[in-house]
Amino acid sequence: MTEQTQTQTQTQPEARTETEPQARPPIEPKPELRAEVPTAPLAEPAPRKSRRPLLLGIARWTAAVLVCGGVGTGAALGITAMDRDQVPGLATASDGRWTYPKLALPALPQGVQRPFTTGNDGEIHHADLRELVLPAPQGATVDPTLNGGWTGLDTYLTHFYADDRGAVKEALADSALRHIAARGWTTPDGTATRVYLLRFSSVAFAEAFKDDVLDTGVRGSRLPDGVEGETADDSLKDVRLSYLSLYAFDERKPVGPEHTRWAYIQAGDTLGMVVQTRKGEALTVPFQQTVALQAQLLG
Q: Can you give the residue range of the structural domain that contains 261?
């Protein structure tokens, strides 16, 4: 029994194997279709660029900016140092004005007032008359005989015709003339300028000489030497001068080789005279400028 039982036990699994269906082999999974479809290979990540070229580029741009900035700054400094008529695109044609030094009224002696102010009813110029004469403009050649100092009567008389000098000299002797200060110069364009300041003892004497001797009202009988006739010069009609009187004249045409303009400035006890002569034509703008500036010093 025991052997039979063991034999059955050993053969039983085989019988079970014959009657039961054999187990199917495991199904291998099919590869995915997408794996069989050719695809573009993935781009490999770009290698990381070195920072050195970038830094070099920045350095180059920085250097360029600094160079351009330096050039621009230099150009700006150069432009600001130039006169307007020297800057391309900003050039302005000169109107003929001269460049005068900065003007300032001279100091007064203690206790006196300037003319045309309260406390100076006599309209007297207490300042040194020589310091009231207009200085020469830049670039001018100063006449050594008319250098801004005191001037003798005979030098002043050369302004007039020879036939008139005796009468003018006599009139000045009777008019209580105190001082004559004068300055003369010639600019590079050939304009000769003479400025005379005559101070009298009072306003009455100054006005009498202007009206009776120089005859500024109508005829202008005391003409500058070389001038045959005169007309009123309207170029100064718009100049506004408080307390001063201005009389401007132009040489009547036809003029000779030289053209002359002149003006008288009545300022209290002082009479100013400005004369400009130039070959061909005495220009209007320098004449206006010179007369106006001299009048300001006397006012």
A: 129-298
